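Subject: Sanity check before I submit

Could someone independently write out the structure tokens for this chain? I want to compare against mine line by line before I put it in a report. The sequence has 256 residues.
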Amino acid sequence: MELTDDLLLRYSRHILLPEIGVVGQTRICDAAVLIVGAGGLGCPVALYLGAGGVGRLVLADGDTVDLTNLQRQIGHDTAAIGENKADSLACSVRAINPEIGVQPIGQVLANAALHEAVAAVDLVVDASDNFATRHAVNRACVALGKPLVSGAAIGFSGQLAVFDSRRADSPCYHCLFPDQANEPEMRCAEAGVFSPLVGVIGAMQALEALKYLAQVGEPLIGRLLLWDGLRADARVMKVPRDPACPVCGPAAIQTG
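---
Independent answer below. Compare away.
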């Protein structure tokens, strides 16, 4: 798209960065992103990607806003209690940037609907809160060759990684966390979560997504960032692709 004078002014602080400039911002404005989850992580991701100028955002969440969400899910307000989270977050994003397209999907994406949504975008951000969804999103991204920015947060700890199965040096989510049926997992409702933590991890997911779209910097591929909020300590671990992975390994790709 051609950046009008108003858009040049709106995104001027991006354009002033020599790594981004008009070319990088145009790439961002031409992109479409699917955000799976409109909760603690999805709120900052959507708000920053919307403010940053991503041309089309698709927000998917089948849950409704609850009073307990408002401690950390900054894309919703008290008046939105009872509303679908995707609809509520879409309104918040539009209020920040009416120049972009925002499509809420008020349901859990699965099977054909998930594949259709992934196929229609340039990048996927997994801001969900359960292993089943993360693995389903990962499988769809691998099958369709879409980059995936994955984040998770619980208690005072968070993690972040970027996957792109088109790159030889990239593992997939399954390489890090093999899919195990009925695997135990902690939820915020049971274990709690420190309010700013989801903002930290969600903002870093938005950072990685915008970098990828603008084609600047080095994406967090083949690495897993672990953030300890209590100690303000970040560790980055190298994570190779698993050649025997049933999702992204050679055998799986040939079968697919």
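---
OP: Matches mine. For the report I'm noting this point. The mean pLDDT is 94.
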